[in-house]
Amino acid sequence: MNAQLKVDTSGNTEVIGKLSITGNISGTGNDNYVVDIQREGNSTSTSYSGMHINVSTVGNSTFKSIGLLAEAGKWVGNTPTASGIGVKGVSNMAGYGVVGLINGTVPVGVGVYGGTGSIEMPLDGGLYAGYFAGSVKITNQLIVNSTTYNSDLRLKQNIVDLGDFSTMQNTNGVGSSQNNGGILSTVLSMNPIQYNIRQMYFASVGDTASVGTAMFDENSQLFQKKHYGLIAQELQTLYPDLVYVGQDGYLSVDYIGIIPLLIQSIKELKAQIDNKGGLIVIDDPVIYKTPSISKSVGNNPASVPSLSQNMPNPFSQATEINYFLPSTINNALLCIYDLNGRQLKQILLTQRGEGSQIISGSEFAAGIYLYALIADSKEIDVKRMILTE
């Protein structure tokens, strides 16, 4: 009469009140259970469940109904020794490991929720298959049929037109009236690269100091294919607002935020062409590379001045710049500029033939610089060098 667990003559079980099952997990295997439920279905069943839980609220109660509350990762003592998994879903056939569905007449809710704190409904009151309140990290391709980004005027403040150089500027003065090149000059200073992903390892349970779990599947297309992008440290010197620092300390780039800069740079380039009557005239001695005098000297390499890329690049302590000056050159200079076109250093080159110049990193702050070889008042070449901290 007073039993908390009731079984009738047909084998049906009814729990009266609160049922609590406790037990100790021990052993070395992976399958250690406090409760083990197994159910077999027949081939004509459309679906069958090992356990069915139905929790309902009555009336207008604001209490949050929870069908299954699974907590893991609690430990005895002060130091955790293993990671915990609240819910693990595994499908051993053509199916789904975890399914989250939202049903109801009110169009507000989330099928699958992931967060780093307490569970809250979407702030916009929408209906979503998945909602994540926090950062999401993916180590393989993200496949989507359509992607949009919030860009409603009602979500923006402190709006500045990129064409308004008199008010727009960042810590480097980019886009301000000091930078005559505008957005176009900084876009031209960006350095697109091709690269492959480097394998990273993270420690998991049981790993030693020298052994870790690989983050990327080296057989995947993501790992094997070439990628194209920018170096975050370089972009940070131009547009720090487009670079973010992750919890792991690595930098990431907001590539979507670069699109408006590209659009503005195209508009500026068109305005320059229109101002020149449809002719492109390259007249900036630093940002734009003028035609090399090698085109008019001839094909004899011994009579053509040249400038080599500094090595190493990037550098932190010192770097070497090699150059070649034929004996016919009277005056030659190696000039170093910042990205705003200001000359920071001028070096008189007296050696003819193969020559080199050492640049010390202690002379400048970390950033991107341009250096030019000027011979007999003519620009020979302009190259970029990167100084790191």
Can you describe this structure in just a few lines?
The chain has 389 residues and is of the alpha+beta class. It has a domain at 294-387: Macroglobulin (MG2) domain (Immunoglobulin-like, Sandwich), CATH 2.60.40.1930.
What features would you highlight for this structure?
Immunoglobulin-like, 4-stranded antiparallel sheet, 11% helix, elongated, alpha+beta, 22% strand, 3-stranded antiparallel sheet, 389 residues, 17 strands
Structure report:
- With 389 residues, the protein is of the alpha+beta class.
- The protein has 5 helices and 17 strands.
- The strands form 7 sheets. It has a 4-stranded antiparallel beta sheet with strand order 14-13-16-17, with no helix packed on it.
- Helix 1 crosses helix 4.
- The radius of gyration is 33 Å and the shape is elongated.
Topology order in helix (H) and strand (E) letters:
EEEEHEEEHEHEEHHEEEEEEE
Strand content: 15-25%
Number of strands: 17
Q: Give the CATH superfamily of one domain.
A: Macroglobulin (MG2) domain
The secondary-structure class comes to alpha+beta
Helix content: 10-25%
Helices and strands in order:
Elements: E1 5-7, E2 13-15, E3 109-115, E4 127-133, H1 182-189, E5 193-195, E6 201-202, E7 213-214, H2 221-224, E8 227-229, H3 232-238, E9 243-245, E10 251-253, H4 258-275, H5 294-297, E11 306-307, E12 318-325, E13 332-337, E14 343-348, E15 353-360, E16 367-375, E17 378-387
Parallel strand pairs: 3-4
Antiparallel strand pairs: 1-2, 5-8, 6-7, 9-10, 11-12, 12-15, 13-14, 13-16, 16-17
